[in-house]
Amino acid sequence: MNGQTGKIVRFGASLSVLAAVLSACASSPFTPPPVDATSPVAAAAEAAAKERGKVPSLASIPAVPTDIPKPGEYKAQVQAEQAAAAQLRRDTAPGTFGLSDTEGFAARAQRAGRVPPSEIPTVADRAETEAFAKAARGRATPPPSKPQ
């Protein structure tokens, strides 16, 4: 008879836990909160809370996409990225390049940076630009001064 006491206590504890869970479920978190009657939108809020939403149907479930890569394709992409990373590490490892022919590099850079003769402004171009600027300054009117 004394061995049955533990079973009775466990059963009672289970019932009390079940009762607590059921009482927590009784106040559903999905019920809308009360509306403040002094609010200017109280009527609209109550109407919106009582309105039932559209229930989706099984027909509204989208089709399974077909353009998703297969696991083998993902693996190939990852391996290609890893191979590119390894190649970059090999190409930029210490000792793979050095500074040589700096004079030749400087000469090539100076040739590439030289302005073609057709783009260099001439004396006539400068005079035309200055005449345009002088005419623009002559047409310009200063803004009115603020009365003090």
Task: Tell me about this structure.
The protein has 148 residues and is an all-alpha fold. Helices cover 55% and strands 0% of the residues. The protein has 5 helices and no strands. The protein has helices at 4-26, 42-50, 71-91, 102-113, 123-139. The longest helix is centred in the N-terminal third of the chain and has 23 residues, at 4-26. The radius of gyration is 42 Å and the shape is flat. The protein starts with a helix and ends in a 9-residue tail after the last helix.
Please describe the structure with a list of short key phrases separated by commas or semicolons.
148 residues; 5 helices; signal; Beta-barrel assembly machine subunit BamF
State the gist of this model.
With 148 residues, this protein is mainly alpha-helical. Helix content is 55%, strand content 0%.
Chain-wise SSE layout:
Layout (H helix, E strand, L loop, with lengths): L3 H23 L15 H9 L20 H21 L10 H12 L9 H17 L9
Q: Rg to the nearest angstrom?
A: 42 Å
For the termini, the CA-CA separation is 108 Å
Oligomer: single chain
Strand content: under 5%
Order of helices and strands: HHHHH
Mean pLDDT: 85
Category by helix and strand content: mainly alpha
How would a crystallographer describe the biggest sheet? none
Rough shape? Answer: flat
User: Helical element count?
Assistant: 5
- Runs with pLDDT <50, length 5+? none
Percent of residues in helices comes to 55-70%
The strand count comes to 0
Biased composition (Low complexity): 76-87
Protein name: Beta-barrel assembly machine subunit BamF
Keywords: Signal
Region (Disordered): 76-100
